[in-house]
Amino acid sequence: MNAIMWMGVAGIVGTALSPWITERIRSKTARRDQLVKLRLAIYADLLRATARLAATATTSAASHPNDADEIGGDEFDSLLSQARVVASDDVYRRLNELSQLTGTFNRHLVKTESRPAFPYRQHLHDGVMNDPLRLQHRRTLTDIAGGIAVAHGKVQDAIRHEMNR
Fold this sequence. Notes:
There is one protein chain. By secondary structure, the protein is mainly alpha-helical. The chain has a single domain, classed as Four Helix Bundle (Hemerythrin (Met), subunit A). Helix content is 81%, strand content 0%. The protein contains five helices and no strands. The chain has helices at residues 3-62, 74-86, 89-112, 122-125, 132-163. Helix 1 packs antiparallel against helix 2 (74-86), helix 1 packs parallel to helix 3 (89-112) and helix 3 (89-112) packs antiparallel against helix 5 (132-163). The model has no long low-confidence stretch (mean pLDDT 80).
């Protein structure tokens, strides 16, 4: 076969495959755009939740043990599950660190609650907020709350880095 014939065959094949190639590229771009939009929505929800988590941890660490509540919860777990599907490895790793700190905070929060050994002796425990063990747990709570605030900043930086790529 000569060169002119090969050019003709290439022209026919190119004309036949052109719509298929164009559609393939368009659908791949559309999927990528859809994933980016989904990531943005989940990241926005995550940033709101992690900021609230950090603020609640700081407030709970400084408040009276009977007024302090556990942090995290079902909403945060749901967002972590969604992030597991669409988040980058770096963002997900940072979220896992934050989740572990949240669990540690909640475990220490239980230790700082003022509970009497015997309910009928409550009057002996009512004013005892400054015993050394309870103060140590409060300091630990404050340190963990600071770590949660730092972890929130790291999540924020990881998301910003990913979105700027």
